[in-house]
UniProtKB/TrEMBL annotation:
<keyword id="KW-0407">Ion channel</keyword>
<keyword id="KW-0813">Transport</keyword>
<feature type="transmembrane region" description="Helical">
    <location>
        <begin position="6"/>
        <end position="25"/>
    </location>
</feature>
<feature type="transmembrane region" description="Helical">
    <location>
        <begin position="333"/>
        <end position="351"/>
    </location>
</feature>
<dbReference type="GO" id="GO:0005254">
    <property type="term" value="F:chloride channel activity"/>
</dbReference>
<feature type="transmembrane region" description="Helical">
    <location>
        <begin position="142"/>
        <end position="167"/>
    </location>
</feature>
<dbReference type="InterPro" id="IPR046342">
    <property type="entry name" value="CBS_dom_sf"/>
</dbReference>
<feature type="transmembrane region" description="Helical">
    <location>
        <begin position="179"/>
        <end position="197"/>
    </location>
</feature>
<dbReference type="InterPro" id="IPR001807">
    <property type="entry name" value="ClC"/>
</dbReference>
<keyword id="KW-0868">Chloride</keyword>
<keyword id="KW-0129">CBS domain</keyword>
<keyword id="KW-0406">Ion transport</keyword>
<feature type="transmembrane region" description="Helical">
    <location>
        <begin position="46"/>
        <end position="68"/>
    </location>
</feature>
<protein>
    <submittedName>
        <fullName>Chloride channel protein, CIC family</fullName>
    </submittedName>
</protein>
<keyword id="KW-0812">Transmembrane</keyword>
<feature type="transmembrane region" description="Helical">
    <location>
        <begin position="254"/>
        <end position="272"/>
    </location>
</feature>
<feature type="transmembrane region" description="Helical">
    <location>
        <begin position="304"/>
        <end position="326"/>
    </location>
</feature>
Length: 575
């Protein structure tokens, strides 16, 4: 069997396993929510909403920490960091732990999504299958992408969207040979979901209205609005998580987080869980049903109250998601970004139609297109957003506005904030990923691996004649001046002594400490190669000394780095 055929078979297996995990997770959440909420909305004010999230977050945290030994929090940033810094090796426990902890978190009302935990599960399945059959890091990364594609495909019933998401967010680099396994994994993941639970997706509707070119000016305004809302979404999540992290005790995080989330859900019931049912209700044109779920607004039939109600949801949903994760719950912000976008789009069209500003705008179209816009802005994944929403609608009727709004939203967001929400979350933890392929390859090279130790050192109290003795046997033209404590005092180059090296008097009387001078820059053994290259660039030097704990180790040359880089590049192409 050829290597390529073997990878294709593995991608199919990973697709099936990821699809099965997605079905278990979806059905588990729906079962918990059905048990907890069935029949409560209209008959009671449902004060149980105040304690449900606290119970769910507490149970998820305890289960993750003491049973699975796997904490909650975000999933996608951790995957990106694992691929970049940990050779694409994901802990085996993640192949199942997030299925249970996120099902409990979301089922009990945690205001996060299932997509990120499912992506972690699918990616962990891919990584561990790759490790099981002893594949290298590059092929493990490909199988991680297969797991991620299958997860998105199984959840949304969108195989193309799954492939695009894996390429755009997870893998960043793709070749034709790598593209085929992603397709197979995505298709098998979607088929597994269809076979087990039917063709039901998170959105159950078909578009009935046609796209009108006359609506494009309003889509322009919607795109700008999506960009600004995605900016707010990212900042709200980041600042809320920072606030939650300021609590020293995990018990306090759970208590405060659960209580705050419970109060939010009590006043704004649509925040409960993922919220996709709310979007289905809006797209079907039944916006008044949202108020029926609230103990305060159920008897009010006023369109202006609906506008205020939805505006509050847009403002509160990102905070609720961050509180859920910061308190110890398991989930992701993939679904909340779609949810906020859907609410924004509906509110945009609903308000315009209510106040009769313009020609009537189709509610379903603007709801779906805004979902695409906010996802494109918050996650910096415009292509994934376009194809995901296009597939969800069952066709490509909205392809033009989807492309237009996602582009406008992305440009608007990046004008104020260059990083995606995932990069922001990594940087908050002090984790920085390479921004280019060159930087990624450089980070695979460590300073200690390219140190040259063949430069002959000399003591600062030695004389010129001692240095000349070294010149006779040395193949280098740089001589580090090192004292008895192995501390670097300076350097002497052949050019420094060329004019005086044959002067007999100076050979006997001139001390090395009088000849030495400071190097143009010093490298630390703990610095990464990107920082080292910056020092080379700024100093204009070709060779720089390396220091560790105040002691001289050797020199690093540009030529040695370039040679190591070339070998890494060749090896990567061969893999």
């Amino acid at each position: 069997m050829s290597n390529q055929t073997f990878i294709l078979i593995l991608s199919g297996i990973i697709g099936i396993l990821s699809g099965l995990a997605a079905v278990i997770l979806k059905q588990g959440v729906h079962s918990i929510q059905h048990f907890l909420t069935e029949g409560f909305y209209k008959e009671y004010a449902n004060f149980l909403y105040i304690i449900y999230p606290l119970i769910g977050i507490s149970a998820a945290y305890l289960l993750g920490k003491y049973i699975f030994k796997d904490g909650g929090g975000h999933g996608i940033p951790d995957i990106l960091f694992t691929i970049s810094k940990k050779q694409s090796i994901i802990a085996r426990v993640k192949t199942y732990s997030r299925v249970f902890t996120s099902a409990i978190t979301v089922g009990f009302g945690g205001s996060v999504g299932l997509e990120a935990p499912m992506l972690v599960t699918g990616s962990a399945i891919g990584s561990n299958v790759g490790s099981l059959v002893h594949l290298n890091a590059k092929k493990r990364t490909l199988l991680i992408g297969c797991g991620a594609a299958a997860a998105v495909s199984a959840i949304f019933g969108a195989p193309i969207g799954g492939v695009i998401f894996a390429i755009e967010v997870i893998m960043m680099e793709i070749s034709t040979a790598s593209f085929i396994p992603l397709l197979i994994a995505s298709v098998t993941g979607s088929l597994t979901s269809m076979v087990l639970i039917g063709k039901d997706s998170v959105f159950n509707f078909k578009l009935t209205e046609n796209f009108e070119a006359s609506h494009m000016p309003y889509y322009l305004l919607l795109g700008i609005s999506c960009g600004l809302v995605s900016l707010y979404f990212s900042q709200a999540v980041r600042k809320t998580e920072s606030l939650m992290a300021s609590f020293d005790s995990q018990a306090l995080r759970i208590l405060y987080g659960g209580a705050i989330l419970g109060i939010m859900v009590f006043f704004l019931p649509p925040i409960y869980g993922e919220g996709y049912d709310t979007l289905n209700t809006l797209i079907d044109g039944n916006s008044s049903q949202l108020l029926e779920k609230s103990p305060f607004f159920s008897i009010i039939e006023n369109p202006y109250i609906i506008i205020i109600f939805l505006a509050f949801i847009i403002l509160v949903k990102p905070i609720a998601s961050a509180v859920t994760l910061g308190a110890g719950g398991s989930g992701g912000i993939f679904a909340p970004s779609l949810y906020v976008g859907g609410i924004l789009g509906f509110l945009f069209a609903y308000s315009s139609n209510l106040f009769d500003f313009t020609i009537p705008l189709p509610l379903a179209h603007f709801t779906l297109v805004a979902m695409c816009g906010v996802m494109a802005g918050a996650q910096h994944a415009p292509l994934s957003a376009i194809f995901l929403i296009a597939e969800i609608t069952g066709g490509y009727e909205l392809f033009v506005p989807l492309m237009f709004v996602s582009a406008i939203s992305y440009v608007t967001k990046t004008a104020y904030q260059k990083d995606s929400i995932y990069m922001m979350q990594l940087k908050e933890k002090g984790r920085y990923l390479p921004e280019s392929k060159d930087q990624e390859l450089l980070e695979l090279i460590t300073i200690t691996h390219v140190i040259e130790r063949d430069l002959l050192p000399i003591h600062p109290e030695a004389k010129l004649k001692d240095l000349i003795s070294l010149v006779k046997i040395s193949k280098r033209n740089i001589f580090p001046v090192v004292d008895e404590h192995k501390a670097l005092r300076g350097i002497v180059t052949l050019d420094d002594i060329r004019d005086i090296m044959f002067d007999r008097e100076k050979q006997e009387n001139l001390m090395i400490k009088e000849l030495m001078h400071s190097p143009p820059e010093i490298l630390l053994a703990t610095e990464n190669m990107q920082k080292a290259m910056e020092k080379f660039e700024l100093s204009g030097a070709w060779n720089l000394p390396v220091i560790e704990d105040g002691k001289y180790l050797g020199f690093v040359s540009k030529s040695r780095i370039f040679n190591a880089y070339r070998k890494r590049l060749i090896k990567q192409k061969q893999d």
